[in-house]
Amino acid sequence: MGLIIMEIANLLRNSISAGDTLIRFEQVTSLGLTMAQISEHFTAAAEKAGCEVIDKTDTRATVRQESSGITYRYSSFDID
What local confidence, expressed as pLDDT, does residue 19 receive? Predict the structure, then answer.
């Protein structure tokens, strides 16, 4: 089970971009996993990859990278 989660998490880390990303589970079957395995372990794998699952069905999921919690503020002061 842990290996399945790690495989899916690695794929997500390499395929998620800014904003919401739709992942079709048929794309993930290239890892040699069944649709049932992907569906069962996807949420845990997304959490492991630092992603939030926005919506999930048996065949697809929409994920978003979790915010790092770091915000950058710029001021009008010049820093020398």
Answer: 84
CA–CA gap between residue 70 and residue 67 (Å, rounded): 8
Q: What is the maximum alpha-carbon separation in the chain?
A: 57
Dihedral sign from CA coordinates of 28, 32, 35, 41: negative
For 55, phi and psi rounded to 5 degrees?
Answer: -155, 145
Strand 60-65 to 20-24 pairing: antiparallel
Which residue is listed with tokens 């069962």? 40
> Model-level pTM?
0.78
As a whole number of angstroms, the distance between CA 58 and CA 35 comes to 8
CB-based contact 66:51 (threshold 8 Å):
yes
The secondary structure of residue 30, as a DSSP letter, is G
Strand partners of residue 60: 24
